[in-house]
Design a protein that fits this description.
The structure holds two protein chains of two kinds.
Chain A: H1 3-15, H2 19-32, H3 36-49, E1 56-64, H4 71-81, E2 84-90, H5 96-101, H6 106-109, E3 114-118, H7 121-124, H8 126-130, H9 137-161, E4 165-169, H10 182-185, H11 190-207, E5 211-214, H12 216-223, H13 225-228, H14 231-237, H15 246-260, E6 267-270, H16 281-288, H17 297-312, E7 316-322, H18 325-334, E8 345-351, H19 355-366, E9 373-376, H20 380-389, E10 394-395, H21 405-410, H22 422-443, H23 447-454, E11 457-462, H24 468-477, H25 490-497, E12 502-511, E13 514-527, E14 530-538, H26 547-561, E15 566-571, H27 583-586, E16 590-594, E17 599-604, E18 617-620
Parallel strand pairs in A: 1-2, 1-3, 3-4, 4-5, 6-7, 6-9, 7-8, 9-10, 11-18, 14-15
Antiparallel strand pairs in A: 11-12, 12-13, 13-14, 15-17, 16-17
Chain B: H1 2-17, H2 38-52, H3 58-62, H4 67-78
Classes of the chains: A alpha/beta, B mainly alpha.
Chain lengths: 625, 79
């Protein structure tokens, strides 16, 4: 189908009222043709479909010192294709300082979820860009200090006026430095001065929550300084980027939008033959498969290295392969070229069953939704089958050349994270401990004996600077055991807790198999004699081990101590939180009210005691405000 | 050649200016099409640069008074 026919087919589907087929066709069109021309078409057609398909609204604002208007349709088309209806506010050209400083500006009026600050080196530090060789060391340092200061002030003002996430472009170095070759020989060079500003930006971002840096300097380098710029367009319409590279900046913006909007994969399910090694283990055997430090086996080691990096980022790895289990496991454990070992995989399915069935089982075993899986397979037929039968699964497209595999996997935005907690680092090991726990559970007959045998210790803490990031992360990604599914940013949580009567608590759980880390969050507020549970959620890896009872019991005790006679909480049903549905009724709460969103449950604290399970050793950390 | 070019330009202009390609006649211009404002003009230029893999001179962009002019300029560049 050529591009004209593809467009006609899409219009035919829209006219016929087949919104989901039209959506699929638009995504397909965009995958083949991410151009300025296709962008307008895709945006316009998605706007027609808006009422008929499920889209997540999100608001983005751009503060800029150059023309970004042509990127807006590209960005909106890319966002529509991942299910996001993106409203884009573009602040006036070079008016970013006023927009930031004025609390009544249209920037804040647009109520953005994320603000991108896209300013160029030549605009913010024209002396460094144009006149560097004429500056003395003091002048260079004073410019660096001024820019750093400006940014500090802007971040502060933005923080005061909006809870939006901030993405700051850092600064590019010139293609040819002012001093030519001498620049690299100097200990006070132009590139160093710009790098110093970039380092200050990184420091500012690392000190604050929800502030991120977009590495514009590396982005330009990655795609090629030689072709990135279009000097003519810069001089005539203030667009510095050539037509061929517009989409590369848009892709980088999208790389932030994926994690910001929760479009992330939690598990990467990988094939083995011709994916983690070259060849087929069942036919070529241990000596025949290609895997090692030399060509061509190095291509597969590069894939494994990419997966290992994901693993350390907190993404779970799982195997799904059509093979004889023994052959494949032997290769994984014993092949000298393997960087990944069995211990890196949270779930393993090596059999001759079809992959769709295996993917369903893996999601079940790991307690994640099927839409949390990403699927990596060199075989286009397997990919197509998964894509057709399980459209919720993210299917990675691999290039045909294995030497390009690793690069393409690393480029995938589904594995991007904006912050990493210690839990993320240790997640893989925690899942291994989980498998051991399940084996124990199967060997012990009574539930209570099982709970006792786990030797669980729980620690409940108030909100601290150290646990804020993890708490916000949990509110944003916990779908199953989540009673109200209210998503909060770090900023919003700090703000809530600063109000009178509000509290935020987290629970950490340890047992004989290891530390599960910070796995639960409760946000409460008390007004008069009523304490309400605003949010209550637990990571699925501890559900069913009575930790939830211990946590709820703590909330009841605390409410009572603060003079409440009633504890209440909403259960707001979603597609995914069925595991939490009976939570309140199972703990003696009575249904008090119902509306279109859910049910309000209450517990009379004078009549009900709600004890903590005796098999959990509970420690309460003070510091309650 | 020119007929083929005209078809490609019409398809792109139809997308970018958000009108059916049938309305993109050789005489269609910013005066005759409401959607053809300065932002869309820049988008059209960029879409053409992407499609044909070239860059226009500022003078050429100024001369793009209607679809026929665009086809002529493209014709002289891709020939």
């Amino acid at each position: 189908m050529n591009s004209t026919e593809a467009r006609q087919e899409i219009d035919r589907l829209i006219a016929a009222g087949d919104a989901s087929a039209a959506k699929r066709a638009l995504i397909e069109l965009w995958a083949h043709e991410a151009s300025a021309s296709a962008a307008s078409f895709v945006v316009q057609r998605f706007e027609q479909l808006r009422a008929a398909i499920n889209l997540q609204p999100y608001r983005l604002a751009i503060l800029r010192s150059f023309t970004v208007e042509p990127m807006v349709p590209l960005l909106r088309a890319a966002a529509f294709c991942i299910g996001i209806d993106l409203a884009v506010h573009v602040a006036d050209f070079n008016a970013y300082v006023q927009a930031i400083m004025d609390p009544a500006s249209t920037l804040y009026g647009s109520a953005p979820d994320v603000v991108i600050v896209a300013v160029q080196t030549r605009d913010i530090a024209p002396d460094l860009w144009n006149d560097f060789t004429n500056l003395n060391e003091d002048q260079v340092q004073s410019t660096i200090a001024r820019v750093t200061n400006d940014f500090q002030g802007w971040i502060r003002a933005l923080r005061k006026n909006t809870a939006a996430h901030l993405v700051l472009h850092n600064f590019e170095t010139p293609v040819y430095p002012s001093a030519g070759l001498l620049d690299a020989q100097s200990n006070s060079s132009q590139s160093m001065a710009i790098a110093q500003i970039n380092r200050s930006l990184a420091n500012l971002a690392s000190e604050q929550t929800s502030v991120y840096v977009l590495d514009y300097d590396s982005l330009v380098a990655r795609h090629g300084q030689a072709t990135w710029h279009d000097e003519r367009k810069w001089l005539t319409v203030r667009l510095p980027i050539s037509a061929a590279h517009l989409n590369h900046l848009v892709e980088e913006w999208m790389r932030f939008l994926y994690p910001l909007t929760g479009k992330i994969a939690k598990v990467l399910v990988t094939d083995l033959d011709n994916t983690l090694w070259g060849g087929v283990i069942g036919e070529d055997g241990m000596v025949g498969i290609k895997l090692g430090t030399e060509y061509p086996g190095a291509a597969y080691q590069a894939v494994q290295r990419a997966l290992l990096d994901f693993h350390r980022r907190g993404i779970l790895l799982a195997v799904c392969s059509k093979n004889n289990r023994e052959d494949a496991l032997e290769a994984i454990e014993k092949h000298p070229g393997m960087l990944l070992k069995s211990a890196h995989f949270a779930a393993v399915r090596i059999n001759w069953t079809d992959k769709v069935q295996n993917l369903r089982e893996i999601a079940g075993e790991l307690n994640v939704g099927i839409d949390s899986l990403a699927f990596l397979d060199d075989n286009p037929i397997e990919r197509q089958q998964v894509r057709t039968v399980l459209p919720e699964v993210f299917v990675l497209d691999l290039p045909s050349d294995p030497m390009e595999f690793a690069r393409s996997i690393r480029a995938c935005p589904l594995f991007e994270r904006l912050s990493i907690s210690t839990e993320d680092h240790r997640r893989g090991a925690m899942y291994q401990a989980q498998r051991e726990r399940e084996q124990l559970e199967q060997s012990i007959s009574s539930r209570e004996d099982f709970y006792r045998s786990l030797q669980q210790e729980a620690e409940i803490s108030p909100l601290t600077k150290a646990n804020l990031a993890r708490i916000a992360q949990l509110t944003n990604k916990t779908n199953q055991f989540n009673l109200t599914t209210r998503r909060y940013s770090e900023q919003q949580i700090s703000e809530l807790v600063s109000r009178a009567g509000w509290g935020c608590f987290s629970i950490r759980v340890r047992d004989r198999f290891g530390d599960n880390g910070l796995v639960g969050v409760a946000i409460t507020r008390q007004e008069g004699d009523t304490a309400e549970i605003d949010s209550f959620l637990l990571s699925c890896r501890v559900i069913g081990r009575t930790v939830e009872t211990a946590f709820l019991s703590f909330l009841a005790d605390r409410a009572r101590a603060n003079g409440a006679s009633r504890l209440q909480g909403w259960f707001l049903p979603t597609k995914k939180n069925a595991p939490a549905r009976d939570f309140y009724s199972a703990h003696g709460f009575a249904a008090a009210k119902q509306n279109g969103d859910g049910t309000l449950w209450t517990l009379d604290l004078k009549k009900s005691f709600l004890p903590a399970p005796e098999w959990i050793r509970l420690r309460i950390v003070n510091g309650d405000k | 050649m020119s007929a083929l070019l005209l078809d490609r330009v019409r398809a792109i202009a139809g997308d970018v200016l958000e009108v059916p390609a049938s309305k993109i006649t050789p005489t269609a211009s910013p005066e005759s099409l409401d959607t053809w404002d300065s932002v869309h003009h820049l988008n059209l230029v960029l879409a053409l640069e992407q499609e044909f893999g070239l860059q226009f001179e500022p003078e050429e962009i100024d001369q793009m008074k209607d679809i026929q002019h665009i086809v002529d300029i493209l014709g002289s560049k891709v020939a």
